[in-house]
Amino acid sequence: MPQSINQHIGILGGGQLGRMLIQSGIDININFSVLDPDASAPCQTISNFTQGKLTDYKTVIDFGKNCDLITIEIENVNVDALKELVRQGKKVFPQPEIIELIQDKRTQKEFYKKNNIPTADFLLVQDKEEVANHVSFLPAVNKLGKEGYDGRGVQILRTEQDLNKAFDKSGLLEKLIDFEKEIAVIVARNENGEIVSYPAVEMVFHPTANLVEYLFSPAAISPTIAIEADRIAKDIIQKLEMVGLLAIEMFVTKDGKVLVNEVAPRPHNSGHQTIEANVTSQYEQHLRAILNLPLGSTVAYQPSAMVNLLGEEGYTGEAKYDGLQEVLQLSGTHVHLYGKKITKPFRKMGHVTIVDAYVESLKKKANFVKQTLKVIA
Fold first, then answer.
1. Rg from Cα positions in the chain
2. Domains present along the chain, CATH in parentheses
3. 1 falls in which pLDDT band (50, 70, 90)?
4. What are the φ/ψ torsions at residue 72 (nearest 5 degrees)?
5. Most buried in the list 58, 117, 118, 142, measured by CB within 10 Å?
6. Mind spelling out the 3-state secondary structure of the chain?
């Protein structure tokens, strides 16, 4: 039957994830509107753009009234407004109740425990004083319940001497895992209940900023671990009955267990490489899922890597890209810049994906990109 995709999608959040979602949606004639508090957000130049707070009830209601469907590229949004938009007949994916559950790391962890999803042991804590009452639980990670993002809101407490670093807000203590690798699996589900997943990827984090520096796909893990990670990812999205794209970050322990760390109900840093490396990018997949279209193939063409371009330490100001020409000369590289005018230390300014038939040469190219392309001011 002939079909026209005549949808006006509203995106809460105008950062780089929204930018790449719009770039994918242009291919199938989707119209987008974007709400973001930053007047110079990356989506500002490529969409119908509204400046406004994502957490303000009336702002989100007024924005959503003019859209057929509302989605997110960041979790810190007003879910009460999204629930009201659903009552008014608007489609919101992922569903507001799921966004609300994931917004709070405490309810995330309780969901895992209730549904027998493997995760690190944890304790809920109300403040710094309560953290201090659980010295015997150390070493642990103290996480804020809400509003932690991109490495913020996380403190490692190894000994009693670290207790002064604990947050004086409600959150959780999570057992520090002695892991071998950190991996991620992205999974998608549409309204019909169709589910597809991407091969697990391996993430390497910056030692101090707690941000992904490198990503390699596929992850260097055994078939047994890959199957288990895939099973867990599909189990989570199925139990949530979520519509959209879900990224699941996991630990692979030294004794071969797979434990869920955190999830994100949207396109994710761990899926950037899918634009060049997989049949269907994570951005196209998210659109397919929320529009209830058939989900696309997740097969990878060849091994891939992703290098995050972070603002260099010691530089704040108008962004300049040193080493760009040298990286563009390298076969198999693709540079994605996010349109952010101002750089500051560790700000995500772009990423580079690399594809190569051979893993060893792929890793050499990734290291070359990391050492060569610098974001300065």
1. 20
2. 8-92 (3.40.50.20), 121-175 (3.30.1490.20), 179-376 (3.30.470.20)
3. very low
4. -130, 160
5. 142
6. CCCCCCCEEEEECCCHHHHHHHHHHHHHCCEEEEEECCCCCCCCCCCEEEECCCCCHHHHHHHHCCCCEEEECCCCCCHHHHHHHHHCCCEECCCHHHHHHHHCHHHHHHHHHHCCCCECCEEEECCHHHHHCCHHHCCEEEEECCCCCCCCCEEEECCHHHHHHCCCCCEEEEECCCEEEEEEEEEEECCCCCEEECCCEEEEECCCCCCEEEEEECCCCCHHHHHHHHHHHHHHHHHHCCCEEEEEEEEEECCCCEEEEEEECCCCHHHCCHHHHECCCHHHHHHHHHCCCCCCCCCECCCEEEEEEEECCCCCEECEEECHHHHHCCCCEEEEECCCCEECCCCEEEEEEEECCCHHHHHHHHHHHHHHCEEEC
Tokens of 182: 């950190």
Contact indicator for 207, 273 with CB cutoff of 8 Å: no
Burial of 13 (0-12, 13-18, 19+ CB in 10 A): buried
Task: Give the integer Cα–Cα distance in Å for 139 and 303.
Answer: 36
Task: Give me the count of residues in the chain.
Answer: 377
Q: What is the rounded CA–CA span in Å between residue 287 and residue 375?
A: 31
Tell me the HSE value of 332 on the side-chain side, using a 13 A CA sphere. Answer: 22
Encoded tokens for 31: 């119209």
pTM of the predicted model over 0.90 = yes
Taking the C-alpha atoms of residue 177 and residue 24, their distance in angstroms, rounded to an integer, is 37
Contact by Cβ (8 Å): 265, 346: no
Query: 23: left (phi > 0), else alpha (psi -120 to 50), else beta?
Result: alpha
Q: Tokens standing for 53? A: 């707070």
